[in-house]
Amino acid sequence: MDHFAFRDGILHVEDVPLPTIAEAVGSPVYVYSAATFRRHAQVFRDGLKDVARKHIAYAIKANPNLAVLRLLADEGYGADVVSGGEMARALAAGMPPDGIVFSGVGKTADELARGLDAGIGQFNLELEEEGEVLARIAASKGLRARATIRVNPDVDAGTHAKISTGRKENKFGVPIDQAPDMFDRLSRLPGLDLRGVACHIGSQLSDLAPLEAAYARIGELVAELRRRGHAISRVDLGGGLGVPYKPGDTFPSPADYGAMVASVTRDWDAELMFEPGRVIAGNAGVLLTRVIWVKPGVVNPYVIVDAAMNDLARPALYDAWHDFVAVQPTGERMVANIAGPVCESGDTFAMGRDIDRVESGDLAVFRTAGAYGATMASTYNSRALVPEVLVDGDRFAVVADRIAAETILAAERVPEWLAR
Ligand SMILES: *Cc1c(COP(=O)(O)O)cnc(C)c1O
């Protein structure tokens, strides 16, 4: 079932027609479907039905909007956070600290201390020195930090280079062959309660094979650590499951993923942690935009929309595809390039794309924009920070304001020696 559907020729999000949102909030604007978030949360959990002990920590970097986090907290999800700011969001949304995982390759001592004060349930360590520092801070507070070592299993996720994290040359994790000795040393520190290992090999994976290969290596590591006398109670399997962006793309379902996990981890006897991001958020949002001009081009016309690379960076960053659909299509088609107003050629969403025929003033959406969309937005070219709207049935609410360029300007100062 899809919560983004046409009724009487007008694209709706759940029961709300998109022109209503454009009228109330303006454009560009991200629009999320609460029902879709809930459904994805349930489908992912159902996929893991054969995993006896599990905890799902939504990777909030995919979409950290407070309202989204509240929805997922209500579904029993915890959070995977990668900064003190994300931790503050997860706590503000009402996620229990115990269910929060603190990941990230550059956690500062200050962030580690704040995590300890908040009672974070699991720190995923990226290097030995981080473990020593965490142990020291914890001991000084009379605490034991619950932690795992994130290992790099040296598996090629087969995804875009910029979102691949599990090859040995990537910056993430401890080389898997060095993990047992490091585990021996760190487990002796009184400030650490070292419970297991973690991995996350990349994002937008279209194939289960690299995940299965990584998990198999993790399984061997767990066995080796137990041979060395360590009690391993937790294994964090990360996120990474991809979603279809293009019509016709096929992806493993959460059920396929869950069946693979259940089979690989059959004998592990540990609580498994999962960190899905994109698979929960991607298809739960669209970026609503208005056509400013249709500019004649040499080869194809340029459809210039009011959304730009500062609002949705994925095409410029990863050559990503987002479907472009008119909100009130006429049935006619055109071949066009789609671009935003930003002064960069990279501010191009598509070239030579077969799309609904649109004219200046028409509304359209970029689909599958719920993950790594608004959260990556900037104000480049002194554009406003894009707002976000959550639809729930026939209700909708602005869940992040549009922050005007003037508001950002107001935070800048001309120093006194340059004053006129
Ligand atoms: C980004 C990230 C995730 C989520 O990745 P998705 O591809 O969105 O599922 C999970 N864990 C860690 C450590 C991450 O950095």
Q: Describe it for me?
A:
- This protein is α/β, with parallel strands linked by helices and 420 residues long.
- The chain folds into two domains: 158 residues, Lyase, Ornithine Decarboxylase, Chain A, domain 1; 171 residues, TIM Barrel.
- Helices cover 27% and strands 25% of the residues.
- It has twelve helices and 21 strands.
- The strands form three sheets. Strands 4, 14, 15, 16, 17, 18, 19, 20 and 21 form a nine-stranded mixed β-sheet that branches. It has an eight-stranded parallel β-barrel with strand order 5-6-7-8-9-11-12-13, surrounded by five helices. A three-stranded antiparallel β-sheet has the order 1-2-3.
- The protein is globular, with a radius of gyration of 23 Å.
- It starts with a strand and ends in an 11-residue tail after the last helix.
- Pyridoxal-5'-phosphate binds next to helix 10.
- The site of pyridoxal-5'-phosphate has 17 residues, from helix 10.
CATH superfamily of the largest domain: Alanine racemase
* N-to-C CA distance: 61 Å
Radius of gyration: 23 Å
Instruction: Report low-confidence residues grouped into runs of 5 or more.
Output: none
The CATH architecture classification of the largest domain is Alpha-Beta Barrel
Count of domains? 2
Output mean pLDDT: 97
- Helix/strand-derived category reads alpha/beta
Strand residue percentage: 25-35%
State the total count of DSSP E strands: 21
The proportion of residues forming helix, as a percent range, comes to 25-40%
CATH fold name of the largest domain: TIM Barrel
Tell me the overall shape: globular
Q: Cofactors and ligands present?
A: pyridoxal-5'-phosphate
Main beta-sheet annotation: 9 strands, mixed
Organism: Sphingomonas gellani
Modified residues (N6-(pyridoxal phosphate)lysine): 61
Function: Specifically catalyzes the decarboxylation of meso-diaminopimelate (meso-DAP) to L-lysine.
Domain Orn/DAP/Arg decarboxylase 2 N-terminal: 38-281
